[in-house]
Amino acid sequence: MTTQSQNKLPEPTPSAWQRFKDSNIGHSFIRDRVAQISFTIFLGYVIMALFAPLIAPFDPYDPNQIDIMNSELPPSWDAENGDEQFWLGTDAQGRDLWSTILYGTRISLTIGICAVLLQATIGIIIGLIAGYRGGRVDSLLMRFADVQLSFSTMMVAIIVLAIFQASFGTELYQELAMTMLILVIGIAEWPQYARTIRASVLAEKKKEYIDAARVMGLGPIRIMFRHILPNTLSPILVISTVQVANAIISEASLSFLGLGMPVSQPSLGSLISSGFEYIFSGAWWITVIPGVILVVLVLVMNMLGDWLRDVLNPKLYKG
């Protein structure tokens, strides 16, 4: 019997793909067709945004590749006035709409992801401190979060961006538009993370492994970030997916109001805004096509967020 146990080969270590398939997320993803389609579409958006300079037939930032005589050309499937080299048509400046959408998607995704990273960083730090310290510190930070939540993101963004543009001029604002949008949207939405993390910390800090960490002499910072934070990542993932979509919508709304990205560096929102005045003159594609692209992007991200919420919540997950 000893010889048999010695000759028995060790079981091979499962691959990363096999571990993913055996997990709840992998099992649910393989069975959920909606999640697969949503993830595939979102991955397509990311790939097109990352490789926009390689995919786009024209560079919308290069004046040498823009001809004002090509302005407001309809899509190529319009047999009467369409041009084969502009399959989605052109905008009012004569730029290829397909190329402009690719670059605009990159800008919209960059603003959405960076704004969420900023709000998550601020919210996680404040939520950890409030939940772990408790007492007056908790009350002070949460009241500050309540005050922040009483103001809508759009209202704060409009006031801050309008004051900045009026104080420092339109030219400087256009140079710093992306940075300002990331800062305003990121700072305005941190309470969503802070309140969620605080609730998780209040539950986690009463568990035995936290008492054991204190007995071992670990400091509060190490306990919060090395032990409590990893056990609160599930709701953060769900919130982040939805918040990226919200940040993109906020940027598009601000661009539509003239407080977003400049026309020279268009996002999806500024594309919709620039073409809105031409929609009733027959150039519907300048607004409608970027609008559809934006709606689909936000829709698939919200559907991925709903799927993650169901999978990561044991009370909702049905297997």
From TrEMBL:
Residues 105-305 form the ABC transmembrane type-1 domain. Belongs to the binding-protein-dependent transport system permease family. GO terms for biological process: transmembrane transport. The keyword Membrane applies. SUPFAM superfamilies: MetI-like. It is found in: Cell membrane. InterPro entries: BP-dependent_transpt_permease, MetI-like, MetI-like_sf, OppC_N. This is ABC transporter permease. It comes from Oceanospirillum multiglobuliferum. Pfam families: BPD_transp_1 (PF00528), OppC_N (PF12911). It is a multi-pass membrane protein. The keyword Transmembrane applies. Keywords: Cell membrane, Membrane, Transmembrane, Transmembrane helix, Transport. The chain crosses the membrane at residues 37-56, 107-132, 144-166, 172-190, 232-258, 278-300. One of its GO terms (cellular component) is plasma membrane.
